[in-house]
Every structure is written in C-alpha cells, then in structure tokens.
From TrEMBL:
Belongs to the NAD(P)-dependent epimerase/dehydratase family. dTDP-glucose dehydratase subfamily. The keyword Translocase does not apply. Its EC number is 4.2.1.46. Its cofactor is NAD(+). It catalyses: dTDP-alpha-D-glucose = dTDP-4-dehydro-6-deoxy-alpha-D-glucose + H2O. This is dTDP-glucose 4,6-dehydratase. Transmembrane segments: none annotated. Keywords: Lyase, NAD.
C-alpha cells in the first residue's frame, strides 16, 4: 500500500511526512512543485529513506499525476499543495487561483479517472483527503461562538476565497461523482520548518537578528494556534476513520491575540537566548500598517473530531511554542538556507512603507 501526498516539501506537509514514516511503514509518494515555499531541506531526514519518493511537479499537471497514480497505485491521495500566505495573495492573487482552484480541479479530475477504474474493493477503500483552512469561514466578533463545520463559508481574502473554492470542488466531486473525499479545516499551525514569512517564525528570526517585530494594526487580532504535529495526527486520524464526504474542523482551543503571541515569544527568547545588552526582545516590537481586509478573529470548535474520531491535541500553546523556539535556536542552518534572495525580496516588498 502507498499514499500520494502533494505539497510535502512545505511546512505542514514535511511535518506530515516525518510523522507518517515514524508511525507507518507504508511508503509516501511526495509530489511538490518546489515553489518559494517548498524546501527539500525540510525533508533532509528522509532523503535516504526508501519509503519516501520525491517527485518535482505540479498538481495541475494531469499527465504527470496520471502517470504517478498508475505506476504507484496509491490507496489515498492527500492534497496539502497550495499557495498559503494571505499577504502574498493580496499582492498577487493569480497564483492562488491557479494552484488552489485550477490545480485542485485538475487533481480531482485525474484522481477521479484513476479511482473509477479501480476494482470494487480498492475503489471502496480509496480516499481523497483535502487539507483546508478555518479561514474559509470568514471572521468572528469577540462574542461569536467558534467556527463549527455547519458555519457558512464567508472567505474574505484572495487566499481564503481560493481555498473555499477548492473545498467546494472537493465537495461537488463527492456529491456528483461519488469520489470518496474527506476535508479538514484547520486553524493556524506553528512549529518546525515554518517558513519565516508567517508571524511566529518571522518574529523569532527577526528578534535574533535585532530587527523590528512587525505587528499589523493594533495587534489585537485573534488566531487559534495548533502545534503542527497535532494537525498531522488529526489528518492521520481523519484518513483512518473519517466519514466519507464529511468535513472536520481541527484546532487546539488556543485563542491568542497577536500581540500576546509576540510577547510570549519575546519572553521565551529572553530566557533561552538573552540579548547581549540584557534588554528584552519586546523592545523590538513595532506597530506597522494593517493588512487590508484583515480578519479579526478565528476560532475553531473542535468538538466534532473529538467526539466522532477521538482526536485531541497533545500540545498546549505553552508547550508547543517553547518547543518551536528551541527548534529555531537549534536549526540556524535551516534558517540561513531559507533566507534566500526570494525571501529577502518578499520582506522588502511586504513591509515597504
Ligand atoms: P506552505 O506554503 O508551507 O507549503 C505549500 C507547499 O505546496 C510547498 O512545498 C509548495 O512548493 C507546494 N506547492 C505549491 N503549489 C504547488 C503546485 N501547484 N503543485 C505542487 N506543489 C505545490 O503551506 P503550509 O503552511 O504547509 O500549508 C499546507 C496546506 O495546509 C495548505 O493547503 C494550506 O492551505 C493548509 N493550511 C495551512 C495552515 C497553516 O497555518 N499553515 C492552516 C490550515 C490549513
Ligand atoms: O488560519 C489558518 C491560516 O493561518 C492558514 O490557512 C494560512 O495558510 C496561514 O498562513 C495562516 O494565516 P494567517 O494570515 O493567520 O497567518 P500569518 O502568520 O500570516 O499571520 C498571523 C497573524 O499575525 C495575522 O493576524 C496577521 C498577523 N501578522 C502577520 C505577520 C506576517 C502580523 O501582525 N505581523 C506580521 O508580520
């Protein structure tokens, strides 16, 4: 048996591959286009592992995906591949439509053709698991209950609109063609291999480099943080036991205001790697202009996955964030590796006054 996973040179996917191979002997075919966010050094630990086969390519390349399916005969396809950064989607939405919408459509079509030709028993056991986000539900007021699976989709950014579109395609391929799909909608992840365009790694790395820690607007926007390995264990559980056609919200019940997240990171760094001048990293906090259309609050109601599949996160925010800071301190070579020209260009474009 084999699974085909897409986008697993990125942050969550690479963590998924490590977690999968630690728990299973079942091989993984990893299809990734290696965009700016795809980094083979995330997979260095498994480069000589025969259970991991890396293929460079686009989820929208029907010929390539068709060939991989017929060669490897996977029992499941898990789609992590996406353009994932909200700020980039605001500056250039085209790639988000191309990969997240058109790419997912092409992938669904090739998978449907493969699945429809499988013998009955394998056809019944096959799964297409689509990895999505809580951002499809839009934004919450302070007093609103967290997002449940029954909430209406109200995406507000080009990124979340493109993910919402892909979720709708996945749903329709189940409803219309009977493709055995599962969809997961997860809150903000953090942990090892997180690309430093996103808040938590950006703050850790800027702090250590003596640079400003940029807080958008008033810093009181709320995100619901989940340690990446918990997201990966939830995906494994949904793949194993999820009900066909169902969606599962995944979250850690860890709502935090951005400014509190940044202050927590500063306090951990003050303890583990104090500044040479003995002052706090919090002095580097700098308020900058807000993200256009910035969603105020996300929060996940994770009761369905707990009730139906018995999944719960292993980490609290406090334990997960400490592990994360330690990982970045211990992996400075990985950090220098990702700070390529593309990354530096992006930083100057995004934070230009
Ligand atoms: P990421 O940007 O770190 O990685 C995305 C990966 O997909 C990269 O390796 C990239 O090279 C690859 N990719 C992009 N376009 C591709 C294409 N056309 N064909 C093949 N590969 C392609 O993203 P991430 O944070 O790891 O997110 C993974 C998935 O999880 C995404 O679908 C995202 O929407 C979803 N998600 C992310 C979070 C989060 O907090 N990061 C939370 C919930 C859901
Ligand atoms: O909710 C899940 C989503 O979380 C995923 O679907 C996305 O792929 C992922 O990128 C993430 O989106 P966010 O926009 O919430 O993550 P980001 O790290 O970009 O920002 C987190 C919060 O911090 C957000 O409110 C914006 C703010 N922020 C971000 C950056 C990069 C700042 O205040 N300053 C910054 O420099």
């Amino acid at each position: 048996m084999t699974i085909l996973v897409t986008g697993c040179a990125g942050f969550i996917g690479s963590n998924f591959v490590h977690g999968w191979l630690a728990a299973h002997d079942e091989p993984v075919i990893n299809l990734d286009k290696l965009t700016y966010a795809g980094n083979l050094s995330n997979l260095a630990r498994v480069q000589d592992d025969k259970r991991h086969i890396f293929v460079k390519g686009d989820i929208g390349d029907r010929e390539l995906v068709g060939r991989l399916l017929s060669e490897h005969q996977p029992r499941a396809v898990l789609n992590f591949a996406a353009e994932s950064h909200v700020d980039r989607s605001i500056l250039g939405p085209g790639e988000f439509i191309q990969t997240n919408v058109v790419g997912t459509f092409n992938l669904l079509e090739v998978v449907r053709a493969y699945w429809s030709e499988l013998p009955e028993e394998r056809k019944a056991g096959f799964r297409f698991l689509h990895v999505s986000t809580d951002e499809v539900y839009g934004t919450l007021e302070d007093t609103d209950p967290p997002f449940a699976e029954t909430n209406a989709y109200q995406p507000n950014s080009p990124y979340s609109a493109s993910k919402a579109a892909s979720d709708h395609l996945v749903r329709a391929w189940h409803h219309t063609y009977g493709l055995p799909v599962l969809t997961t909608n997860c809150s903000n992840n953090y942990g090892p291999y997180h690309f430093p365009e996103k808040l938590i790694p950006l703050v850790i790395i800027n702090a250590l480099n003596g640079k400003p820690l940029p807080i958008y607007g008033d810093g009181m926007q709320i995100r619901d943080w989940l340690y990446v390995e918990d997201h990966c264990s939830a995906i494994r559980r949904v793949l194993e036991a999820g009900q066909l056609g169902e969606t599962y919200n995944i979250g850690g019940w860890n709502e935090k205001a951005n400014i509190d997240v940044v202050r927590t990171l500063c306090a951990i760094l003050d303890e583990l790697k104090p500044r040479d001048d003995g002052r706090s990293y919090a002095e580097q906090i700098t308020y900058v202009k807000d993200r256009p259309g910035h969603d105020r609050r996300y929060a996940i109601d994770a009761r369905k996955i707990e009730r139906e599949l018995g999944w719960k996160p292993a980490e609290t925010f406090e334990t997960g964030v400490r592990k994360t800071v330690k990982w970045y301190l211990a992996n400075q070579e990985w950090v220098s590796n990702v700070q390529s020209g593309t990354y530096r260009d992006w930083i100057s474009k995004n934070y230009a006054l």
